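Copper resistance protein
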Amino acid sequence: MMRIRLISLSAIAALALSTGIGLAGPGGAGHSHGAAEETAYGKPGDAKKPARLVQVTMSERDGKMAFIPDRIEVRRGEQIKLVMRNNGELDHELVLATLEENLKHAIEMQKNPDMEHDDPNAKRLMPKKTGEIVWQFTKVGEFDFSCLIPGHREAGMTGKIIVK
């Protein structure tokens, strides 16, 4: 009986770990997140504290999709508020993570294209809608933001955040 329980617990743990790449970031899509959860690219910001505003426009034109700007420079420790507007005719999202995490998550999005993000590091917007992400960049490096709706990243909807 004890062996069966151990195998069951192992199977549950393996299943939980194997599904982790489908998550948008700290805690994953649809889960609650603590304000202090730190990732390789920083942590959720505190909306009550000052933040530098960075406006990001999402659009598609002539078969290309884009974030404007597609490159953002940040100082280590700085908190920014990404104020996003979807000026396109399609849904778009912005998922902030490491490049490796976003590429892995893009594979999961191929399997689940209707997965929606409304996490501290990710926001999906319908056409003509706006949204915000408040984030504190605690580590130096290059990080990725992408629209992971299938085909959008491949059509050019990706950008870099450089933390110095």
